[in-house]
């Protein structure tokens, strides 16, 4: 089997026979990803080695954004693409970027920029998975890591550079990263990358790449600043807009009116009643993230937390372990609202309701990934009521009052619907006495970092099957993720 997998010259009839594709994902999908024109990956004139990586990653056929963007991107035309969160944007630009790379030339030929470190790590892993048969070297670089390590890695051949703008500009400015052959320039979450904090850096980065570069911008929202960038730096871009509506069709949205002091009790009730595979719980400040994570652990549930003030190594570990199913619940700030794809997440809870519609849109997009089903539950105080109404109007969506019982078919895969709802709190008898202390490495209370978490699975956005598994043992407090009742 290994021979068939690694031999792209196999005959047309049997080259797929040796591929190690993941198990088929039988969860239903919405029209956000199924309403295609029937184009197949094999119709796109992609290299055999790249096709092998695509199918082994679990892709079956392109999503609408992939179907629209990839053929045009292969012609090296500039692209301005707008599509919903969780519909396959990452593959829409990584596939053509990899196709353009010549692995025989030891130069950086494609640069993929993201606004956050976690998204950079995820995007790099997608590139590695898709290009694993191509002989392409992918490097990820972000702030929070040592510059010395990056310099050492850049002394060897790197074909695709993925990272955050500030770090890449630092490397280019020091003449460590040679971008003179980089003719593919991709901006993921482009609206964020063109915000005032990033715009000067983006302008400088463009000066390091060739004039005949291909520029591709992908995002779910495009404010006016994107048009200004397009007019200045893009050449007759092909514009794609698949945003007939802003929110994902598979995400059902509810609100519950609560007093501030009742929020933790309400969250505990949701944990008991819902059939949660994995959940992300959002707070509006880093202090509230740590306080809530501590409360969740005191209730006995497995919990990680993550926010921007944590050291990068702790953030990476939490992200990897949560993605690998080590823990069931993650409390976080808006650090993880953009692009992060964890397909096992079927419930998002806004413990604190956001003030802006764009933030709300990105938060709830962490569930219902790639056309699957999910829940978004908002805990609303009296002060939030005007924001609730305004966000509904701005997004053209309806957030309904939460019913006494939520139909499982709205957010649970059919094969798992018969399982009982609720999480079982971890055994109190084994909880250490110092459980009231707040952790500093992304784990609630005094939990130690799990040792069985490895590298991320690398199953990026736009993956039709082979989604994440339910959480395994080894939760945040070392006693295992909470099993379902």
Automatic annotation (TrEMBL):
SMART domains: DEXDc (SM00487), HELICc (SM00490)
Reaction equation(s) it catalyzes: ATP + H2O = ADP + phosphate + H(+)
Biological classification of the source: Eukaryota, Fungi, Dikarya, Basidiomycota, Agaricomycotina
GO biological process: mRNA processing; mRNA transport; regulation of translation
Keywords: ATP-binding, Cytoplasm, Helicase, Hydrolase, mRNA processing, mRNA transport, Nucleotide-binding, RNA-binding, Translation regulation, Transport
Start-end of Polar residues biased regions: 1-12
Name of the protein this chain belongs to: RNA helicase
InterPro entries linked: DEAD/DEAH_box_helicase_dom, Helicase_ATP-bd, Helicase_C-like, P-loop_NTPase, RNA-helicase_DEAD-box_CS, RNA_helicase_DEAD_Q_motif
């Amino acid at each position: 089997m290994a021979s068939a997998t690694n031999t792209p010259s196999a005959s047309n009839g049997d080259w797929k026979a040796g591929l190690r594709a993941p198990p088929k994902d039988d969860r239903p999908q919405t029209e956000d990803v199924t309403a295609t024109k029937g184009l197949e990956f094999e119709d796109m004139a992609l290299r055999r080695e790249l096709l092998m990586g695509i199918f082994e990653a679990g892709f079956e056929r392109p999503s609408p954004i992939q179907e629209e963007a990839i053929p045009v991107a292969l012609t090296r035309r500039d692209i301005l693409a707008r599509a919903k969160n969780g519909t396959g944007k990452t593959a829409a630009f990584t596939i053509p970027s990899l196709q353009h790379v010549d692995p025989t030339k030891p130069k950086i030929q494609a640069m993929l920029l993201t606004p956050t470190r976690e998204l950079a790590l995820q995007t790099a892993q997608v590139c590695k998975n898709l290009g694993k048969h191509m002989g392409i070297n992918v490097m990820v670089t972000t702030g929070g890591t040592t510059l010395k390590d990056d310099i050492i890695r850049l002394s060897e051949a790197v074909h695709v550079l993925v990272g955050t703008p500030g770090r890449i500009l630092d490397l280019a400015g020091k003449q460590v990263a040679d971008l003179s052959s980089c003719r593919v320039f991709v901006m993921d979450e482009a609206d964020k990358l063109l915000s005032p904090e990033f715009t000067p850096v983006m302008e400088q980065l463009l000066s390091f790449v060739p004039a005949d570069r291909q520029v591709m911008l992908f995002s779910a929202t495009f404010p006016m600043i994107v048009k200004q960038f397009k007019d200045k730096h893009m050449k007759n871009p092909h514009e794609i807009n698949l945003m007939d509506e802003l929110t994902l069709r598979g995400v059902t949205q509810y609100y519950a009116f609560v007093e501030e002091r009742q929020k933790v009790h309400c969250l505990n009730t949701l944990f008991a009643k819902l059939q949660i595979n994995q959940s992300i719980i959002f707070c509006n400040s880093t202090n509230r993230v740590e306080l809530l994570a501590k409360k969740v652990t005191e209730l006995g549930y497995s919990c990680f937390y993550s926010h921007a003030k944590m050291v990068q190594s702790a953030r990476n570990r939490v992200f990897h372990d949560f993605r690998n199913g080590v823990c069931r619940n993650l409390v976080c700030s808006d650090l993880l609202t953009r692009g992060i794809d964890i397909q096992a997440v079927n419930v998002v809870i806004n413990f604190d309701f956001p003030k802006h519609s764009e933030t709300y849109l990105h938060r709830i997009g962490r569930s219902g990934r790639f056309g699957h089903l999910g829940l978004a539950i908002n805990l609303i105080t009296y002060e939030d009521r005007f924001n609730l109404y305004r966000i509904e109007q701005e997004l053209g969506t309806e957030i309904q009052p939460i019913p006494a019982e939520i139909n499982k078919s709205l957010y649970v895969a059919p094969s798992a619907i018969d399982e009982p709802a609720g999480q079982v709190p971890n055994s109190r008898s084994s909880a250490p006495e110092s459980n009231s202390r707040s952790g500093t490495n992304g784990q609630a209370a005094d939990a130690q970092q799990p040792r069985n978490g490895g590298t991320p699975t690398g199953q990026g956005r736009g993956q039709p099957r082979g989604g994440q598994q339910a959480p395994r043992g080894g939760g945040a407090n070392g006693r295992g993720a909470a099993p379902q009742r």
